[in-house]
Structures are given as C-alpha cells and as structure tokens.
Amino acid sequence: MLFAQLLRVTALKSSDHASVRAVAESLEHSTVEAIESVRRLALELRPPSLDDLGLWAALGDLAQRYGEQHDLDVTYDWQGPRERLPAELELVLYRIAQEAVTNVVKHARASRASIDVERQRDEVTITITDNGVGIDSGIAPVRDERGLGLGIFGMVERTTLVGGYLRVVPASPRGTSIVAVVPLAHAERIMERSSPR
Ligand SMILES: Nc1ncnc2c1ncn2[C@@H]1O[C@H](COP(=O)(O)OP(=O)(O)OP(=O)(O)O)[C@@H](O)[C@H]1O
Ligand SMILES: [Mg+2]
Q1: In this structure, which residue's CA is closest to atom 24 in ligand 1?
Q2: Where are the domains of the chain?
Q3: Strands (DSSP E) along 50-159, which ranges?
Q4: What are the pLDDT digits (tens) for 136-164?
Q5: CATH placement of domain 49-194
Q6: Residue to mutate, 66, 99, 106, ligand 1, most ligand atoms under 8 Å from C-beta
C-alpha cells in the first residue's frame, strides 16, 4: 500500500500547480520514511539472522549494531556449545538482550555494555551488564500499575513463561546487570507439547 501511495504521490509532482507540487514533495518524503520504518520494524520483530543463523550469531549482530549505532562499547561472549536452542528459547533470550541493551542506551549513560551467555547442560544464563548510572537512579521511569516499566516487565514475563527467572541486580563497581536463567528441559517439553503430531 505504501509503495502504491508513493507512486501516486510521485506522479503528482508533475502537477501544473506549484502548491500541489510542494505538498507532493513532502508527502513523497514522508512516504519513503514510512516504508523504511516499516521495514526496520519488521526486521526487528523477527531478526532474519535469528532464524537463519541462530542465537549465537544473532547476538553477535546485535552487539555489533548497538556498538556502531551508539556511543557504546559492546562486548559479547558465549560460553559452551553453539548449537541451536529450541526456537522459542532463542527468541526469548534474544528479546531479553535486545530490551536490556536498548535500556542501556536509553537510560544508563554507560560507556560499556556486555552480553554474556553461558550455556550449560540443562540451563542457559544470559547476563547483560552496563557500567552506567545504575537502575535506582534512572531518570523518569515509565511505570505500569505494578511499578515496572513495560520493558523490564516484559522481560520477566517472557522468562517466566519458559520456566526461568530474571533478576535485575546492581553491577560492580557501578551500573546494572540483567540476569536471566532459563532451563532447557522445560522449553523442550513445551515445544514437544505444542508441536503437531
Ligand atoms: N540499564 C539501565 N540503567 C539505568 N536505568 C535503567 C536501566 N534499565 C532500565 N532502567 C530504568 O528502569 C526503568 C524501567 O525500564 P523499562 O525497560 O521497564 O521501561 P522503559 O525503558 O522506561 O520503557 P519501555 O521499555 O517500556 O520502552 C527505566 O525507565 C529506567 O529508569
Ligand atoms: Mg525499556
């Protein structure tokens, strides 16, 4: 629909009326922006690297992107086997990292952040740490009725749904750590239950 609109708006740029040409010009500009936003949004909703290459590579992409786009040094470390995890679990862990790093950029005023994954036999731990102002001194928190911003609330909820838990803890000497632990067995059971026979 947006492409169709773009074509029609572009055609209006050859109107005989200067005022129509001016409006067409600005509509063309905003339509191009809308197309780009939709594309970015779609990519973020389900990052192609997560489907194609798995969590290990997708987190590497995420760390690199945030490092390049913001004035932040993002390190990434993965301990343990790199084989694919159940898709549902990969998405949960990716979303946690994405929200946590977004929060670092939005709120932490940090110079460094790290994404660490530790994959053990029966559980996976992801830790996102920054060296910023710390979560209690955060500015103007957006809160829902339970006293949580939607981002942290969502992270907790996603983790709980796959049988894990998430903690927000102060980092040393300063900053914030988000630690999420998800059991592998639980996710695999959910997958078995929901997969068609
Ligand atoms: N890494 C961080 N460092 C400092 N403060 C933080 C950090 N992460 C979150 N906060 C604080 O905690 C609050 C809640 O975070 P949360 O992600 O839940 O909400 P939000 O980022 O404000 O909004 P949303 O995620 O819904 O767009 C933030 O508003 C901010 O004040
Ligand atoms: Mg947030």
Answers
A1: 151
A2: 2-44, 49-194
A3: 73-79, 112-119, 123-130
A4: 744 444 555 555 557 888 899 999 999 99
A5: 3.30.565.10
A6: 106
